[in-house]
Design goal:
The chain is an alpha/beta fold. It folds into two domains: 24-89, Chemotaxis receptor methyltransferase CheR, N-terminal domain (Chemotaxis Receptor Methyltransferase Cher, domain 1), CATH 1.10.155.10; 100-286, Vaccinia Virus protein VP39 (Rossmann fold). The chain is built from nine helices and ten strands. The chain has helices at 24-38, 47-61, 66-75, 80-89, 100-110, 131-145, 161-169, 204-207, 241-253; strands at residues 121-124, 153-158, 171-173, 189-191, 199-202, 210-214, 227-231, 255-262, 276-280, 283-286. Strands 6-2-1-7-8-10-9 form a seven-stranded mixed sheet, with helices on both faces. It has a three-stranded antiparallel sheet with strand order 3-5-4. Helix 9 links the parallel strand 7 (227-231) and strand 8. Helix 2 (47-61) crosses helix 4 (80-89). The longest helix has 15 residues, at 24-38. The chain starts with 23 loop residues before the first helix and ends in a 5-residue tail after the last strand.
């Protein structure tokens, strides 16, 4: 979700800014802002890391002091500067077929159980630059397409407009796909040439399977309907326990009875009242029967 490096160049060369040092008051201001707007917790001991990342952002945006940057941040009504700030403060590693066991479960257990006429609905709730929802789309196209059945409807959301711009293009350097071992993968890719040599692009039929939208997970969700599957992986690690509990409760409310919630393997719902049934590591199911 947040923390994806945007594929956008600065308008011009940034001016030199020395190593940034934040006062305790400045660090507290940034921490409160991140907590209030995004639910992200910047705990004690992260002062130098936060200062280094804000300093890098300030250089890119050509601000000469923290007070100048923070003033602009508060005055910016577009929310773009705030999004760039949270992108800078958080790091989210993402890749195709990350946590392979989840996708094996999706194809072998969940897809094979879908004998209804209607297509299933899947939400990738922290999609970053698109690797997760495209992995879902690739597996679904391979599974359902070969059987002549309707493809799933996939919603992919993130808070970062920059990450979503990258995801919508569906273009990735070859090294991002090197760890993807599925033998059928290449038939769904277009190889770049000229200035795009060394890059691949998802074929149109894969891109068209995914609807990308900007959603802030700590704010009330828009009317999204209900889903058979929700992926919300490796984003709750940034949230406080209370924010995690609130998010899980709202995600569970978006699941159909019998629907599945996938979280990251480094995340746990221990200590959270959620009413979901634990299926296997990082996979939970809403009680009830699919209809």
């Amino acid at each position: 979700m947040i923390g994806s490096e945007p594929f956008i160049a600065a308008d011009c060369e940034p001016k030199t800014l020395g190593l940034l040092s934040l006062t305790p008051k400045e660090f507290a201001a940034v921490s409160e802002l991140a907590r209030r707007e995004f639910g992200v917790e910047l705990g004690a001991g992260k002062e130098q890391l936060v200062a280094a990342r804000i300093g890098k952002l300030m250089r890119r945006l050509q601000f000469h002091s923290f007070s100048e940057f923070y003033g602009y941040l508060q005055a910016d009504r577009t929310g773009e500067c705030l999004t760039q700030l949270i992108d800078s403060l958080t790091t989210n590693h993402t890749s195709f077929f990350r946590e392979q066991a989840h996708f094996d479960f999706l194809a072998e257990r969940l897809f094979s159980d879908q004998d209804r006429d209607r297509p299933i609905r899947i939400w990738s709730a922290a999609c970053s630059t698109g690797e997760e929802p495209y992995t879902i789309a690739l597996i679904a196209h391979e599974y359902f397409g070969s059987r002549g059945r309707d493809l799933p409807s996939i919603l992919a959301s993130d808070i970062s407009t920059h990450a979503l711009e990258t995801a919508r293009m569906g273009k990735y350097p070859a090294q991002r796909l090197q760890q993807a071992s599925a033998p059928w993968l290449r038939k769904h890719l277009l190889r770049g040439d000229g200035r795009w040599e060394g890059w691949y692009r998802m074929r149109p039929e894969i891109v068209e399977m995914v609807d990308f939208r900007r959603i802030n997970l700590i704010e009330p969700f828009p009317d999204l309907g209900h889903f058979d599957v929700i992926f919300c992986r490796n984003v709750m690690i940034y949230f406080s326990h209370d924010t995690q509990a609130q998010l899980v409760h709202r995600l569970a409310a978006c699941l159909k009875p019998g629907g599945y919630l996938f979280v990251g393997h480094s995340e746990t719902l221990t200590g959270i009242q959620h009413g979901l049934q634990h299926v296997q590591p990082a996979i939970y199911r809403k009680r009830g029967i699919h209809k």
